[in-house]
Amino acid sequence: MRNKLLTETIFITLSLAAFLIFLTSSNKNAIDAQVLIHVESAHLELNKDQVEKDLKVLDGVSSAKISVEVGIISMEIDNDSFNKHSVEKVLSKWGYDSDENWDIEVIASSEF
Hints:
The chain has two domains: 1-29; 33-106, Alpha-Beta Plaits. Helix content is 40%, strand content 24%. It is built from three helices and five strands, in the order H-E-H-E-E-H-E-E. Strands 1, 2, 3, 4 and 5 form a five-stranded antiparallel beta sheet that branches. Strand 2 (61-67) and strand 3 form a beta hairpin. By secondary structure, it is an alpha+beta fold.
């Protein structure tokens, strides 16, 4: 009787732990918007790779790509954890002037 209770308790505990791990891992990259930033800079191509790396590290940013030809930074973000001021700090660190109005597009999702 004692072994059965211990076995069931361990099984339930492991099941709950696995369920919680699943929930936290599935909510990490909830991309729900795309931000387009028009940037004016003569040296955009020189620092492109480093700026993309700096932007990807920020909370709420899952990807960042710079189009040198048209001067646009495109980022896929989680709107709940995205912080505009942290992006502005990265851009000013590298000497980029951006428009005050950023284009934000909501990405359609089939998740409820």
